[in-house]
Structure formats: structure tokens, C-alpha cells
Design a protein that fits this description.
428 residues; alpha/beta; Type Iii Antifreeze Protein Isoform Hplc 12; 3 domains; 7-stranded parallel sheet; 17 strands; 19% strand; globular; NADP binding
Amino acid sequence: MLGINRKLANLEDKGSYIKVGLVGAGQMGRGMISQIESMKGMRVVITADLAINNVDNAYKNAGINESDINVTDDLKAAREAVLQDQVVATKDSKLVTALPEVDVVVDATGVPDIGAQIAWDSILNNKHIVMLNVEADVTVGPLLKKMADSSGVVYTGSAGDEPGAIMELYDFADAMGFEVVALGKGKNNPLNLESNPDVTAEEAKAKGSSPKMLASFQDGTKTMVEMNAVANATGFAPDQPGMHGFEGKVADLPGIFIEKEKGGKLNHRKVVDFVNGVAPGVFAIIASDKDEVNAEMKYLKMGDGPNYVLYRPYHLTSLETPLSIAKAYFDEEPTIAPHYGLRGETVAIAKKDLYEGDYLDGIGGYSVYGKLLKADEAKADKALPIGLVDRNIKLTKAVKQGDVITYDAVEQTKESTIWKLRALQDKS
């Protein structure tokens, strides 16, 4: 079987290329456009963003001539531009999903409700969809995957995102017959459950990033959501609510991820977790019950067993997304998808004391953070998924700091796509 690079080169040699539609020209989207312009056999032919200057600058920074950038919200004009090997900048995300020439859509908005709508529209228009929106995926991904499967298109998370990088390690080990004991990632910063945009403002300004996004990393929500995606893809689960968040270096991992009665720190095997001290890498803890395999692993300097660690010290975020685009297009396979349905649930926890009549403000804000539970535990608690939280959610009763926010403690003041899809998913 040819590698992706050769498949792309062959496609270009035939005078063709994969036509990508992108929604979201923020940091992730801009990087992806430039990366794809360096590749063979692929191009981002249309990009949508409410700030049209973001799209224009993204294309120019990728080396595309201004004369080849067409700003339009008109379907006919967009089609003509793409057929002439030009690119389109638009404010209308529905133009991206409706454009017949687009083969694969990428959601890089980072907003759960918008991402759910983009995925829904892409599937209805028979297009493969790559999600750089893990928050939407862990909330309604199981339903979207079923829809995509029925429509004969691919629903997938992205290579380069930590869940995708972990899944590659899992697939590698599982294919060779190893037992996969645990899957995890490093956390870049100390856990601060009270982090908010005020706390992160100075650091975010220095890094040129969003204060809300940085807060979602610091308060642990992003880590919970990412490992939630891995749980849904593999059938693994958190060993305890919120996972452990162990401390350690790469060499420590095989000893940490052993059951407590055997000298380790786990209650169970087949768990997802995070570790402070190994960022920005991802890892899989593997084992074998075969003496010959263990002897060879020792010979290969993989350790003395019984556990071994596979560690990848980097993940290139949206720069690797083109690999998922190509895999969906050529092989009709996902990089990572919720094969096991909803195995985990990242639920909303009050970041401070909240009162009746308060409105929630979303991920990385001032009111909530996410905590990963097993899906059945979350269902029993009637816990509100973090992906359903936005500024249109009003509290109908007070919730104390650190408590789970439940469905019966909120009301939706404005209907949203992701709530509709979640209701469908819960009935299916």
C-alpha cells in the first residue's frame, strides 16, 4: 500500500488535488493553510471566518497571490473560482459545507455548537468531516459518527491533536497483539481549577493566544475533554473521577500504571489519564504475557517489564491535520472516532459559587470547568456535559463551588444545534 505522500504525489501528477474546505481561520486554521500549501495533491480551496481579514491574511501568508483570493458569499461565484484553481474567502460557513467541489471539510472553530452544526451540514452534503473541535466530538460525536457511517462518509478527529496522536500509539500496539494497559498525555501546566481569563490575561498576551483558551488548559477542562475522546474511541475509562494526574517522568510511567496491589497506583487496567512531567508528549503503557516477547523487549532496552512505555514527545496540532484529510479521502478511514460510543463524559463543575439566575459563560470562562467521569456515572448524576455550556444557559437554582451542575439546575434560553443533536443522541 502506498504511503500518503506517494498517494498525494500521484494525485498531483494526474492534475488533481484534494479540495479542502475550512471553517475557522484562527491560529490552528492559519497554520493548516500554510502547511497544505507546502504539500502536493491538496489545497484549502475555501475558508470561512466571521473576520474576513483573517482568511485573507492566512492565504497571503501561505504564499497565495492576492489576485487568486476571491471574497464572496455567493455559491456560483465560489464554484467558478475553485474551478479556475483559485481560492475563496467567505463569512458563510454554510457555503463551505455546500460547495460541491469540496471533498473534505475541517472544523477549526473550537466552539462546540458551531462545530456540531458544521459536522451536521458536512455529513448532509456527503462530505468527509475532520474535527479540530474535541469539545463538540465528546458531546455529540457518537451520533455524528453514526450519521457519517450511514451516509458513506468519514467522521474523524485530527492527527496532531493529542487524542489523535494517542490513538496512533494505541492502534500500533493493539495491532501487534500487546495488551494496552493505559493511555495518556502530559499536562503542560499545573492544575488550577479557578483559572479564568483574568488569571491568564498577561500570559495569553505574551503568547499571542486567547485568555479563554489558556484558562481551559490551566483549569484542566481541555485535558479532560481530550482524554474523554480517547475513552470513547478505545473503550477505556478514567480510573477515578477526574483521573489521577500523576507526577512523573517517562521512565517512571511503566511503574506508575500498575495496579495498587502489585506496587503501582492504579485501581484498574485499561484507563485514560494524564501525567505532570511528560508534556508535551503522549504515551501508551503496554504489556505482554509471552516470555519470548518480554525477553526481546528487554533486549531492545524497553525496560524489564512487566509494563513498557511507548512515548511520542511531540504533536504538531493542525499542521498534522492534512494527514487525517488524506486518510479520509484516500482510505475512507478515521484517525480517531468514538467507536465505543459514549464511554466517558466531561461534566460541568461550578468554578465558584453560582446563584439562581446566573448565566454560564462556557469553556475557559469564569463559571465552570470540566471533569471526566465514566458515562454511566454522569448519567446517574444527571450531570450537564461541558460541551452544552454556553452564555444562553441560565441557572434555575444555586450551585456551590466544586459541585456538579445538573440538567435540572439549568434552562436553555436560546435553542442550539448541539442541544438538539445531544437530545437525539440520548434517545438513540
